[in-house]
Structures are given as C-alpha cells and as structure tokens.
Write a structure and sequence with these properties.
Helices cover 38% and strands 21% of the residues. It has 399 residues and is an alpha+beta fold. A 4-stranded antiparallel sheet has the order 4-13-10-11. A 4-stranded mixed sheet has the order 5-9-6-12. A 4-stranded antiparallel sheet has the order 16-25-22-23.
C-alpha cells in the first residue's frame, strides 16, 4: 500500500479504510464564545498534554453556549481529541465524564466503532498519519488541518483483539517512559526548591549587576559558505536548540577544522554560564558540561564569564533560572519584531550575593542531584528508544 508517497507493507489480515468510514469524525467550534467567570470549560489545543487534558488553565463559557456547541460536538468518555490549529496533533483520550466544549479541536468518536481508542491514539502519532497531515496542512505562521482532511485520512488496522493486544503493549511501554520523565521533573523541581529555600527573596543579601560580576559576550554566526556536519570532528557547535532547561540536549553538530579556525575566539567554557538571546528558547540559562568545554557557541546565545570571585557559576545559573531571575529577564527582552535579549540588557540584571560558603554548599547538593538526574535521564532515553521501536514495529504488524 502506498500512502502519501510512502510504501507501507502490512500483514494480509490488516485492513485500510478512510477514517470517516470506521468512526465519527467531528470538530469543535471555530468561533470564540463569550467567556464567563464560571461555567463550562472550553478546551483548546493548549490544554492537550501528553498525560491528558489540562483543566488547570481553561476559559469558561455559559451553559447556553456550551449546549449550542454540544449539538454538533458533544464530547464523551473515550473520544479522542486532536489539535487542528497551531501544533497539529497531541492526541488525548477523554477519561472524564465532566462536561466541556472544544474549540479548534477535532473529535474522533469511537463508541460505535470497532477501532480501539488506545490503538488509534498511538496510530495518530506514527509517520503513517503524520506524512498524510504534512501533505495537507495549510496556513503560514498559524498551521491548520481541515476536518475534511482528517475524515479522509487512510488508517490501517487489524482485528479488534489484535488492536487491544498492541494497545496494551504500547501503553505499558508508554507508562514506563512517562514515570521516568516525571521522576526527572521532580528532581529538577527539588533543585529549584532548595535554591529558593537558601537564597529566596526572604533573604536580604547585598546585590550587584550582572555586568559588574561577569563579562557578557555573544556567540558567533557561521561564516558564509560554511556548514555544520554530523560526524564528530572534535569541534562541537552548540546551537540554541541544544540549550534547554539548564543543560545541553539534542543532537550535536560539528564544525570542520577550517570553520573552527575562522570563529575559534567564540568558544564557551564549562566555567561560564550561557543564556539564549534569540528564538524559541530565549531566556534559557545553564552551564555547559565539562565534556563540551571549549565548544563553539551559536550567535543566538551569550556567555557570562565570571570575573568576581564572590559568586559561582552554579549560583548565577540557578538564580537566572529561578522565578526571580526569569521575571527580570522577561522584563528586559525586546518584544517588538523578533524577540531579542540584548547583551547590555543582560548586564542590567540584578543578582544577590550570598556568602560564598553557602553558594559552595548549594553547588555540592546540586552536583549530587545532577548525578542522580543524569542516571535517570539515561534510563528515560532507554525507555523512549524502546517505546519508539515498539511503535514502529506495531504499525508494521511486527509485534
């Protein structure tokens, strides 16, 4: 079978159908009802999270508007919600009987279908579906997919018993990776909690400006005609996408030797603190791990080179990542046009200077937490790889 120019071979007992032939496919309202202080939740794509529907940040609408929307888009338990605008996808199974309405969200209703909801949820995250949607997604900065496209999607499926067996395997693997992901999040939360307890606003420490205790320097754009390569040349180039949540993540790319020679002054040390100044991760702060000491730094980030022995890089990093530091950062980012954090604005940030022995004690605590977190991250990546492998095998009919 060829779908979206992709050859897909499945066992002979699997079938292919249009979505609308095997289930009821609807969408929520595309209008904006009048919001109320109380009433019925209006769920949009921002409320679709990996672990379910997030009701903590919703707008409310009147009973009249809710009833009007529900005439064509009533949500029931075991329906699947799917974002149609912005970030397309994020399928979520409805696991509540609480009444709510949906806006700009597709509704796959499977109560009268022989397609298993859990099986279908995982199918929606596979290349089989994603390739079809990519070919049909419309819009400029605000991407969207139409209800007609969703109804016409081709989906493969085996017999119901086989669907349930596949769904159970994937669900078990998914629960393992989510538990490990949650453990990492709680460990990170512990570090922030310890920081606030030791250095929060309740303490009256003397303050100084970043520009007084650090030299702030920008990274470097690749010279025209030079390209990054995936093979390890010994000259890693740290991009903004690698700088997230206090550490470096994502696939590293490398410079050729001649490119490194052209920009070799723009490197970062593991003693420095980085801060992203442009793009989706603007305001992210962290420390470069020792194994990337001397790596070249993107022009979309800056480094803070400490010149005052009263502060440590761990303390500065955690302060700038705290709510107190982030409030200052956000207040200084230029928001007209492309958001940008100017180097001179970084220098204006005010930082408390607690006793050095307290900073060093905090660093020892965080280093122990980071060791534990690294171990958990390795296990999480293993579970992520296992899940992705099972997902690919499941929808090749190999489980």
């Amino acid at each position: 079978m060829k779908v979206a120019r992709m050859r897909i071979d499945l066992p002979s007992n699997w079938q292919w159908s249009k979505c609308s032939d095997v289930m009821d496919v609807r969408d929520g309202t595309h209008d904006t009802p009048k919001y109320t202080q109380f009433g019925y939740p209006l769920i949009t794509s921002k409320n679709l999270k990996p672990d379910g529907i997030d009701f903590s940040d919703v707008s409310y609408i009147s009973e009249e508007d809710h009833r009007d929307i529900s005439k064509r888009s009533k949500v029931d338990r075991n329906d699947i919600l799917f974002a149609m605008i912005g970030t397309i996808g994020n399928p979520v199974i409805v696991e509540t009987d609480e009444e709510f309405s949906v806006k700009n969200v597709a509704l796959f209703k499977l109560a009268k279908s022989y397609i298993d909801p859990v099986f279908f949820k995982y199918l929606l995250g596979t290349p089989i579906i994603q390739r079809q949607l990519i070919n049909e997604t419309r819009g400029g900065t605000q991407k969207f997919v139409s209800l007609t496209v969703l109804r016409n999607m081709l989906i493969p499926y085996p017999l119901p018993e086989e669907q349930k067996r596949i769904a159970a395997i994937l669900d078990k693997a998914d629960r393992v990776r989510r538990k490990r992901q949650e453990a990492i999040r709680l460990t990170e939360e512990l570090g922030r909690s310890i920081f606030l307890n030791m250095f929060g606003e309740q303490h009256n420490y003397p303050k100084s400006l970043v520009g007084s205790i650090c030299t702030v320097k920008g990274g470097k754009r690749l010279p025209i005609g030079h390209q990054l390569v995936s093979n390890d040349t010994g000259y890693p180039y740290i991009r903004a996408g690698n700088l997230k949540k206090g550490t470096t993540t994502g696939e590293l790319l490398y410079l050729k030797q001649e490119t490194h020679q052209a920009i070799k002054r723009y490197t970062i040390s593991s003693d420095d603190v980085y801060i992203t100044i442009v793009g989706a991760y603007i305001g992210d702060v962290g420390i470069i791990p020792i194994e990337l000491d001397g790596a070249n730094l993107t022009e979309n980030a800056a480094k803070l080179v400490i010149k005052d022995n009263r502060v440590t890089n761990y303390f500065i990093s955690y302060f700038l990542r705290s709510d107190i530091g982030q409030r200052q950062i956000k207040s200084k980012i230029k928001t007209t046009g492309q958001p940008k954090f100017a180097l001179f604005r970084i220098e204006e940030i005010e930082i408390p200077i607690p006793p050095l022995e307290m900073q060093e004690k905090f660093q020892l605590i965080i280093e122990n937490i980071d060791k534990n977190n690294y171990s958990m991250s390795v296990h999480y990546q293993e579970s992520e790889n296992l899940f992705n492998s099972l997902l690919q095998r499941a929808f090749r009919g190999e489980l």
